[in-house]
Design brief:
It is built from 6 helices and no strands. It is an all-alpha fold. The chain has one domain (about 10-150). Helix 1 runs antiparallel to helix 3. The longest helix has 30 residues, at about 10-40. Its main location: membrane. Pfam families: DoxX.
Length: about 160
């Protein structure tokens, strides 16, 4: 009997829930990473404005490429501790850069548009990343989980 079929119904439920969470978070971060490749000039301007650093085009492309690779690792669930944690840390850095906008989540601009809505969304995503990392051992439907069931104590899980 295949090991995947021996998972309890709770393990299957946990695995499906974490699969949905993992794919959603990987897609969320992938979109930001892909835009670094598509519109690198925009990210040069953002780095200059927010971080006060000048990045070359190749640095933006390299950052985007590395982030895309991490997103793919998260999507399939390989190198889970490293890849999930790396995306969590990247997103935490984004949240830290916007912390002052959390103080007034209901602020409106002069046309009545909410201006601090996206940072509040960032907090929900941060919570989802933390949950994903904390639940790695229940991520049974990932490639790392499958490999771990077949090869206990494997370095790639």
């Amino acid at each position: 009997m295949d090991d995947d079929l021996r998972l309890s119904s709770n393990d299957w439920t946990d695995g499906v829930a974490l699969l949905v969470l993992r794919l959603g978070l990987a897609w969320f971060m992938f979109l930001w990473a892909a835009h670094k490749i598509i519109t690198p000039g925009q990210y040069q301007q953002l780095a200059r404005h927010f971080d006060k650093v000048d990045l070359s085009l190749w640095q933006v492309y390299l950052a985007g490429g590395l982030q895309i690779a991490l997103c793919l690792c998260v999507a399939v669930g390989i190198f889970r501790y490293a890849s999930y944690s790396a995306l969590l840390i990247m997103h935490f850095f984004t949240v830290l850069r916007r912390w002052e906008r959390f103080i007034d989540p209901f602020a409106l601009n002069d046309r009545g548009f909410p201006i601090n809505r996206n940072p509040v969304i960032d907090l929900a995503v941060l919570g989802a990343f933390i949950a994903l990392v904390l639940l790695i051992r229940r991520d049974h439907l990932s490639l790392g989980g499958w490999l771990n069931r077949h090869h206990r104590k494997a370095w790639w899980h």
